[in-house]
Amino acid sequence: MIHTTTLRKGGAGPDRTQFAGSVPTPAETSLLVSGPAHETLVDEWLKQPGKALPFGGRDRLVEALNAEEVVDDVAIAYWHRKVAAELTPETLEAQDAARVTEAVELLEQVGRKDLGDTVARVTSSVLQVSIASADGTSTASENDPRVQAGTVFDRVVRADGTVFERVRDGFEPYYPGAVRFQADRPLTEADVERFAQLAGYAHKSVLHSPTDLPEPELDSPFSMVFTNTSRLKETNVQTYIDTMNAYLNEGSPMRESAGNTRLIDPMENPPSFELYYAD
Predict the structure, then answer these.
(1) Which one of 84, 147, 189, 234 is CB 3.0 to 4.6 Å from 172, fit for a cystine?
(2) What confidence score (pLDDT) does residue 96 get?
(3) pLDDT tens across 152-180, in order?
(4) Residues 228, 274 within the same domain
(5) Nearest residue to 209 via CA among 200, 219, 218
(6) Are residues 71 and 97 in the same domain?
(7) Does residue 77 lie within any of the structural domains?
């Protein structure tokens, strides 16, 4: 049976000429003049299999129908499709972010700014991961226990929203602002020091940078981040990776002028690594 509600507002809605026989006859029409009554029709509609909407969808549907002169199954079906299409993942993420902001402000008002800052930081990271993984690429936050345990992901998202992309076919850096090395084993303090020395040497020998690499920042027991790597690009990234592997295993090149010695010795237990980059 076709339900109909007559409302006071007019507005754009479905083109009924495309719905042959969909305009209700007097016998099929139940006139409902109050808002709660047509909200009941919406609730009944949403209970049907496959008609549920994400959070906020019901209110959007009711709001849209408020602008209709006649609210019947045709109008509900039309606006249901429109609302469902509007509630994309990006829209829902924006709504979630707004609700988090409200919660953080409330926590600050009751004197729990510390807790509010934690909530904001964690949820921001989760939101960035959701956005970055929208194309199905394996993605995780740097604080994800799996990342901290050494699992390799195609994308790693930092708490500040920076997205590190793993170098792979179709994904090469173009003058990135930072790189991230993720080893296949935990790195000791001595490992990090030697790795950083060899990375700095490769930075000069392969990328011909006039400046030194800064000290690395550790973001897991397996990985470290270097900034100021803007000379890295598609045409030299593989050479850089190959050179780093050679340096880790053999140390810096032999110096004939210094009695065939190396400036930097190799690592005792050279790790394999994945290279990431961020704009």
Answers:
(1) 234
(2) 61
(3) 999 998 877 788 999 998 888 888 889 99
(4) yes
(5) 200
(6) no
(7) yes
The Cα 159–Cα 5 span in angstroms is: 50
Q: At what angle do helices 73-86 and 35-46 cross, to 10 degrees?
A: 70
pTM reported for the whole predicted model: 0.56
pLDDT in tens, 187-245: 999 999 999 999 999 998 888 888 888 999 999 999 999 988 778 888 889 999 999 99
Give the total number of structural domains in the chain: 3
Residue among 84, 76, 83 at smallest CA distance from 22? 76
Report the DSSP beta bridge partners of residue 156: 140, 164
CB 19 within 8 A of CB 45: no
Positions of E strands within the chain = 4-6, 70-72, 139-141, 155-157, 163-166, 178-183, 217-220, 223-227, 254-255, 261-262, 273-278
Residue 42 is classified by DSSP as H
If pLDDT is split at 50, 70 and 90, which confidence band does 119 have?
low
The answer to whether 240 and 273 have CB atoms below 8 angstroms apart is: no
Same domain for 95 and 184: no
**Tokens at residue 97, please?**
């972010």
Domain check: are 36 and 124 in the same one? no
Torsion of CA 38, 42, 47, 52, to 10 degrees: -170
Domain that holds residue 107: 89-132
C-beta separation of 198 from 252 below 8 A? yes
